[in-house]
Design goal:
By secondary structure, the chain is of the alpha+beta class. The protein folds into two domains: 158 residues, no CATH class; 81 residues, no CATH class. It is 34% helix and 12% strand. The strands form three sheets. A four-stranded antiparallel sheet has the order 2-1-3-4.
Length: 301
């Protein structure tokens, strides 16, 4: 046997045409990826070359048609209140979920913080922008962006982040954003729920970590960092469980002070890409919020 054990790695699905066909059932539209230096989605002018070093066109390069993308940038640069036209450029469900998850898990090496690690796919003939997250290895507060990762507000307007600021400005998306955060904290990212998942995965990978000679961290480091902060030569890494608990507690305190209607949400996904047919938040006073989705998981008005 000449095989060599290279250690424990994650397997990541690349965002390419196979990905687009699997999740969107098409691959003929523009796919953009933020450059390594990050891109704020600020609008400069109507010349595509002004953006070519900040965000990369990954598909349809022969056509090189940036028209819809530049209109999108111009729209989100408009002052607060211009929300109705925004929905011709973005999928509000996608946007609200992206920012809800990003904020709850403290994934700040993203559009919110560093301005990188995201794709935009312009779905369909109208080019409705869907944001696709990428490279979450510094989530759970590992990338701080010089913020307090435990207590970073979910309602902070951010300098040079017009897309997130639009979420806060536009009532319909803001409501979805807040509801999604509540759903996450009550369900999949509830500390009790996710800590059980952490323990299960830790038990799965622990034997491999113990024998991995190429790992940057020891088994002792692994055990420590499951719960507590780990000191390194360059700083510290938040403990996974302590970050989740503190982050959840802080966000709940913000939500308690936020004036909004509590809700019950029922989401039905009738396709093979989603393995849940029922999700319900339990938040006191009930406001029914029913959504119907097509086979691509897209909201039908």
């Amino acid at each position: 046997d000449k095989s060599i054990d290279l250690g424990l790695y994650t397997q990541v699905q690349q965002v390419d045409k196979k990905f687009l066909n699997l999740w969107y059932n098409e691959d003929e539209q523009n796919l953009f990826k933020a450059g390594n230096a990050g891109f704020s989605l600020l609008y400069y002018d109507d010349n595509w070359e002004s953006y070519a070093d900040k965000i990369l066109l990954k598909t349809q390069r022969d056509k090189n048609d940036w028209t819809n993308f530049l209109s999108f940038l111009e729209n989100i640069s408009e002052p607060a209140g211009n929300c109705s036209e925004l929905f011709t450029y973005i999928n509000e469900e996608n946007l609200a979920w992206y920012f809800a998850i990003t904020n709850v898990i403290g994934n700040f090496d993203s559009y919110l913080g560093s301005g990188r690690n995201y794709y935009l796919y312009q779905l369909g003939e109208k080019g409705i922008n869907h944001i696709i997250p990428w490279d979450l290895n510094l989530a759970w507060g590992t990338y701080s962006n010089n913020w307090n990762v435990y207590n970073h507000s979910i309602f902070n307007y951010l300098e040079e982040r017009p897309l997130f600021n639009k979420v806060l400005d536009c009532a319909n998306i803001r409501k979805l954003y807040v509801q999604n955060i509540e759903t996450l904290l009550n369900e999949d990212l509830n500390p009790t729920v996710i800590e059980a998942k952490i323990d299960s995965l830790a038990n799965l990978v622990r034997p491999e970590i113990a024998k991995d000679e190429n790992s940057l961290f020891s088994l002792e480091d692994f055990e420590t960092n499951l719960q507590d902060k780990l000191q390194t030569s360059t700083g510290s890494i938040p403990g996974l469980k302590e970050f989740i608990t503190q982050r959840s507690d802080f966000i709940r305190s913000e939500l308690e002070a936020y004036d909004h209607e509590d809700f019950v949400s029922i989401l039905n996904f009738s396709n093979r890409y989603f393995n849940r047919n029922f999700r319900q938040g339990k938040m006191g006073k009930i406001v029914h919020n029913h959504k119907i989705f097509n086979v691509l998981g897209q909201s039908i008005e």
